[in-house]
Amino acid sequence: MTDKTLSLSRKILPEIIKIRRHLHAYPELAFEEVATGKFIAAELSRLGIRVEKNIGKTGLVGILKGRSGSHVVGLRADMDALPILEESGVSFASRNKGVMHACGHDSHMAMLLGAARILSIMKDDLHGTVKFIFQPSEEKNPGGAPAMILDGALRDPDVDVIFGQHITTDLPAGKFGFRAGPLMASADEIYITVLGRGGHGAKPHKAVDPILISAQVVLALQGVISRMKDPLEPSVLTIGSIHGGTATNIIPDYVKLSGTLRTMDEGWRKLALSLIERTATDCARGLGGDCKVEISRGYPVLVNSDEETDLASRTAAGIFGKSAAVTVPPQMGAEDFAYYLREVPGTFWWIGAGNRKTGATASIHSSKFMVDESAFMYGSALLASVAMKYLSGKEMTGSQRGRRD
Fold first, then answer.
1. Alpha carbon distance 122, 5 (integer Å)
2. Which regions of 142-221 does DSSP assign to beta strands (E)?
3. Which residues pair with 184 in a beta bridge?
4. Number of continuous H segments (helices) and E segments (strands) in the chain
5. Phi/psi of residue 381, each to 5°?
6. What pLDDT does 162 receive?
7. Are 221 and 280 in contact (CB under 8 A)?
8. CA-based nearest residue to 164, from 347, 314, 320, 305
9. Sheet with strand 346-354: strands edge to edge
10. 103-149 pLDDT, tens per residue?
């Protein structure tokens, strides 16, 4: 089976590349993926795959039923682009100025369409059903995954297990990065308004300086990470934006701060958010001002299940060789695939697409981001093979459905 999926993937690679380049040239932002969705729906329909549209606003789901079997595998790709002006220099660069597929979602969609093509060809060997989940708005909080779940992307038929992948230039094409347990961090957005009392810059004693208070708040918040957290618990608190004041000799009335908290543990996440609010408020009040803290809860910690991670890793090693499957450390980036993993078991892995010779070295979210397109052959083959292996194993063992209650 694995030899056949790889052979088919190699055969259709030019078509996958063509699809990816089209998607790259016409990127759309979160929840605006209308043309993208129409293109994907047409490709799935061409393969004889039933399409359900307007799932999670602009998302869609393709359903392919095999010859037999009652179990269901979900395969997911994200669809949205980023508000970045592209500087990659490729001939198929974005034609939508200021919008770019700088996170590889064009590649994810192309590889999932490649897997759909492979599985439609091998339909008679498919012991169950595959749902191809094309999700909007991975880049923007609160993410498209909750909307997809709410609209029934994992239901009717009910998904037992789900798999997804993310392209990276940190690994070369042909390599995959796996990790059971926590792989990616939670991500919460923090907005703080420091309130003072404006006045003349030469008379600070008659004002309450929110700029001075803001400086102290930023420093105090780092104490939450360095002194209130278990040092063995990964966590990051970044203040990425400070805005306040209009002139050199005017003390403003307020300053606005914004930042992000990343954690790998939901218990610490909850405590840290309360500590951030308390620390900022106490610090501001101690210096004669005040502050308002607003927290926008973002994606949860992405936790891969052991069994499904092992299945994906063994499948990659079996198809591409032992060295193709590597264990990677957790990282503090976030992914709303985490929401699916709260509903059903599954795993999310990194697929290598780096290549120094071709200049594919820039990281995701860079205006110069490029990938080694040979990676699409590996990614499409692995998605198809993992789905088939899971369904074949369930058919043979008669195992119970994998949904989490």
1. 8
2. 161-172, 176-178, 181-184, 186-195, 199-200
3. 302, 331
4. 9, 16
5. -65, -40
6. 98
7. yes
8. 347
9. 50-55, 59-65, 129-135, 72-78, 161-172, 346-354, 176-178, 325-327
10. 999 999 999 999 999 999 999 999 999 999 999 999 999 999 999 99
- Peptide linkage before 252 cis (omega within 30 of 0): no
Residue 46, φ and ψ in degrees, nearest 5: -60, -30
Whether residue 157 is preceded by a cis peptide bond, meaning omega within 30 degrees of 0, is yes
Nearest Cα to Cα of residue 6 among 118, 163, 146: 118
* Under-70 pLDDT residues of the chain: 1-2, 395-405
What are the chain's domains?
Answer: 2-183+301-397 (3.40.630.10), 186-296 (3.30.70.360)
CA separation for the pair 63, 52 (Å, rounded): 8
- pLDDT tens sequence across 144-162: 999 999 999 999 999 999 9
Backbone φ and ψ of 287, nearest 5°: -105, 15
Rounded CA separation 76/116 (Å) = 11
- What is the pTM assigned to this prediction? 0.94
- At 40, list the tokens: 């994907």
C-alpha pair distances (Å), 231 with each of 217, 265, 267: 21, 13, 15
* DSSP letter (8 states) at residue 87: -
CA distance 26 to 39: 11
* Spatial contact of 352 and 175, defined as CB atoms under 8 Å apart: yes
pLDDT of residue 405: 47
DSSP states of 8-26 as a string? HHHHHHHHHHHHHHHHHHS
Distance from chain centroid for Cα 242: 26
Q: Tell me the one-letter amino acid at 95.
A: R
| Alpha-carbon distances of 166 from 105, 257, 290, rounded to whole Å | 8, 31, 42
Active site residues: 299, 373
CA 121 vs CA 5, 286, 302, 384, 399: distances in Å: 10, 68, 32, 11, 26
Report how far residue 328's alpha carbon sits from residue 304's, in angstroms, rounded to the nearest whole number.
13
The pLDDT value recorded for residue 393 is: 86
